[in-house]
Amino acid sequence: MTAVTDTINFDSFLTSTIKKYEKELQKNFVEYRPSINLLMDNYGHKESGGYSVQIPAEFGNNSSTKFFSPYDQIDTTPSEFALPLIYPWRHVASSATVSEIEKVANSGKEKLFDLMEGRIRQAVRSMVNLLGSEVYSDGTSFGGNTIVGLAAGISTTPTVDPASGPVGGVDSPSHIWWRNNSITSAGSFAANGVNGSTQDLVIKQFDNCTDGAMDRPTAILSSQSVFEYYNAALLHTVRYVDPLKKGDLSFGGLYYQDMPWYWDRQCPDGRQYFINTKYVHFYTDPQMMFRWTESRTWPNQVVDIRLLLLRVLLCYKDRMFLGVIDGWTA
Prior knowledge:
Layout lengths: L3 H4 L2 H22 L2 H7 L11 E7 L23 E7 L1 E10 H6 L3 H26 L15 H4 L27 E3 L3 E2 H4 L8 H8 L10 E4 L1 H11 L19 E3 L2 E5 L8 E4 L4 E13 L10 E14 L6 E3 L2 E2 L1
Parallel strand pairs: 4-12, 5-13, 6-8
Antiparallel strand pairs: 1-2, 3-11, 6-9, 7-8, 9-12, 10-11
Helix pairs in contact: 2-5
């Protein structure tokens, strides 16, 4: 049997395989984890180049605004109205590696295609699992080179800056308007959850994150246990989210206040996030959105390697309309 390396240009073969699955891999990347699907927001936020993304955070009221009589003087002193929020780009890498031995063992296009398809999918799956996990981080892992996760951006201690530093560069202790809503030690869901026998902390937090008709949570993201507590509270009035009506979503959910409630096994147990995708979402860079490097080899190794690269950041634009409830039990 002729070795596959004699008949197939491996670099060209890998390139064509990646090209064939490019759209499907991006689709799987978004849909594989509930948090990624929700916060990617249909790739609606893209920026190219630079070392960070800067966003203005508007706040406060003009102190000169008042009712007046015809001969009153109007104060024209300008008021500070915005601060820059700065989020540095973060970079994620995974690899697809095939040795010369594997190429020979998988002689022929069919077997080599199956091998490479598996390695490519593994790289994407590993990347999305890592990013899905870091969605809930405090921004300190990987030496601080990770994204600003929900543990930092929608903190259980919003009056204190997270260990990774002020979110967006604006410190919470000095800026009340830059604090998210937090309820901790929630306790029994049966007593304090939806239609609880004692109180309803879920509707309370929903209202905390709502301002008239313009700003309200667009989704709830919780751990599996909290989702199941809610499902039990609904009894036979359960209304499931239709996967086909949510971007061909591969996971189901429930409705609460006419918004979807999803569960994620990577979400910390007993925790529930109130998300408004207008104010928290990913940015991606189209120049490094699932970009594969050229095939490369290392000295003294008989392998071909390609690296999968992603440039991404998780930004928060207005934390006062985001919330978390922590400490739920049955």
